[in-house]
Amino acid sequence: MRHEPRPGASPFERLGAHFDEVDRVCPDCGFEDADGRWTTTTTGDRVSYRHVCPSCGSIRKRTLDVGDR
């Protein structure tokens, strides 16, 4: 099932949709979560994506730092 971001989606929403589409298989147990979604949170200078495997409970995270350095 392909998850398309809505028209005018931000780059962060498009990246989240990308994770939904291509990063479905749990590296720990091999379960393919075809309907799973990555959740997104932000602090303003950091965007975090998170997925919990419904089979084994393993948590995967991807983080982007977008603040000035």
Which terms would index this structure?
single chain, 3-stranded antiparallel sheet, 69 residues, globular
Structure write-up:
The protein has one helix at 11-22, and strands at 39-42, 46-52, 59-65. The protein is of the alpha+beta class and 69 residues long. It has one domain (11-65): N-terminal domain of TfIIb (Single Sheet), CATH 2.20.25. A three-stranded antiparallel beta sheet has the order 1-2-3, with no helix packed on it. A hairpin with a 6-residue loop joins β2 and β3. The longest helix is centred in the first third of the chain and has 12 residues, at 11-22. It is globular, with a radius of gyration of 13 Å. The mean pLDDT is 85.
